[in-house]
Design brief:
By secondary structure, the protein is of the alpha+beta class. It is built from 5 helices and 10 strands. Helix content is 38%, strand content 23%. A hairpin with a 2-residue loop joins strand 6 and strand 7. Helix 1 crosses helix 2 and helix 1 runs antiparallel to helix 3.
Length: 221
């Protein structure tokens, strides 16, 4: 584990040798459902203000009363509420999302099922480009770049991280994928993972290395 204050590596539950603070025995990370709800509620509010300005100019109160007495009021309400309803859907979908890290394992509980890998069973840590539209949640994950890290818009790259474990009973490798826009405080999560198994290797580089090795073997034959 690592001390959350000075980022010094130390066993979970022990005293940090650098700052003297107690190092957590486990760290827990939630999903991004609350963030999506927040961003989409802001969008609903902006739509409301936009329609009020269109209806009343600079006098927002007049614009609101104009909309309220309009024959299209219920249609306006549907337009205003639609983003918030979508946000509520993803909040419900992701409210159980939770990743837990200890000195022994990394585990995830989510809507799609439970996963757990012992650090000793992990054979590879990979990093690859994964467009937001190709994640399990789809394009909605692109909203993770808005109103985050104290910025209106953060240039967060669409990168997925994969923890590859030993094969299961069917002979298939167990893979825990950390997709962009799905995990809260991803930088700290990655720092804890790298403390246990080292930095990730780019999938493209792995492919290039494999191609080069195959070419060398062919030339040797």
């Amino acid at each position: 584990m690592k001390c959350p204050d000075c980022h010094c590596a130390a066993p979970g539950g022990s005293v940090c040798p650098k700052c003297g603070q107690r190092v957590p025995e486990r760290e827990t990370f939630g999903g991004q459902g609350t963030h999506y709800l927040y961003v989409l509620m802001v969008i609903s509010g902006l739509l409301f203000l936009l329609f009020c300005v269109i209806a009343g100019g600079t006098d927002i109160a007049t614009g609101f009363w104009t909309l309220l007495h309009s024959n299209w009021f219920w249609l306006y309400m549907v337009i205003f509420a639609a983003p918030t309803v979508v946000g509520l859907y993803y909040w419900i979908l992701l409210r159980e999302e939770e990743i837990t890290i200890t000195d022994e394992f990394i585990a995830r509980h989510s809507h799609w099922g439970d996963e757990c890998l012992l650090w000793a069973d992990i054979v590879a840590f990979r990093r690859r480009i994964l467009p937001f539209k190709e994640t399990r949640l789809g394009r909605i994950t692109g909203l993770s770049r808005f109103l985050t890290r104290r910025k209106l818009f953060a240039k967060l790259p669409p990168i997925a991280y994969e923890l590859v474990g030993t094969p299961d009973a069917s002979g298939m490798p167990r893979i825990m994928s950390l997709e962009p826009g799905t995990v809260d405080d991803l930088p700290w999560l990655l720092e804890l993972i790298e403390e246990r198994i080292g930095p990730p290797q780019d999938v493209s580089l792995m492919s290039d290395d494999a191609t080069t090795s195959s070419r060398d073997d062919t030339e040797g034959d």
